[in-house]
TrEMBL record:
It is found in: Cytoplasm. This is Phosphopantetheine adenylyltransferase. Pathway: Cofactor biosynthesis; coenzyme A biosynthesis; CoA from (R)-pantothenate: step 4/5. Residues 6-134 form the Cytidyltransferase-like domain. Reversibly transfers an adenylyl group from ATP to 4'-phosphopantetheine, yielding dephospho-CoA (dPCoA) and pyrophosphate.
Length: 165
């Protein structure tokens, strides 16, 4: 049986921290679906379609990774895809409390699907999409935080003012 995991997130935008978890997860699972969700608590900078395209461009070399968009419950999506697991990245202890609540609810919704946590590489432990957007807003160098395609997309968004923040 193939081991399929879902790596969910808003990825607004995808960072090297996200890619660290995706690349390492791709080594553990036979197939990894990176699922782009719209976080209702946040106003998105990039549309879901833009985030999917940025992720596809950033993971093109990972043969067992696919990118998809989803709105709805993660556990419904995971069941629909016949996933055995959910892969979540943790940056710090503060992430753990939030993730534990989500995992507990997900377990209540579907106890068949396990959640696996992977610690982000220390070099990315401070990194968040929000921080990247804030730094990029002031034209600071983000080349060591995001892939080149994301850096260019950020520059274009800020140059044209085509976002809803």
């Amino acid at each position: 049986m193939s081991r399929l995991a879902i790596c969910p997130g808003s990825f607004d935008p995808v960072t090297y921290g996200h890619l660290d978890i995706i690349q390492r997860g791709a080594k553990v699972f036979d197939e990894l679906i990176v699922a782009v969700f719209n976080n209702q608590a946040k106003t998105p900078f990039f549309s879901v379609d833009e985030r999917v395209q940025l992720l596809k461009a950033s993971t093109v070399e990972l043969e067992n990774v696919s990118i998809d968009a989803c709105n709805g419950l993660l556990m419904d999506y995971a069941r629909q895809k016949n996933a055995q697991a959910v892969l979540r990245g943790l940056r710090a202890v503060s992430d753990f409390e939030y993730e534990m609540q989500i995992t507990s609810m997900n377990r209540k919704l579907n106890e068949e699907i396990e959640t696996f946590f992977m610690m982000t590489n220390n070099q990315y432990s401070f990194l968040s999409s929000s921080m990247v957007k804030e730094v990029a807003k002031y034209q600071a160098n983000v080349s060591d935080l995001v892939p080149p395609v994301v850096e260019e997309a950020l520059k274009q968004k800020y140059a044209t003012g085509s976002f809803d923040l």
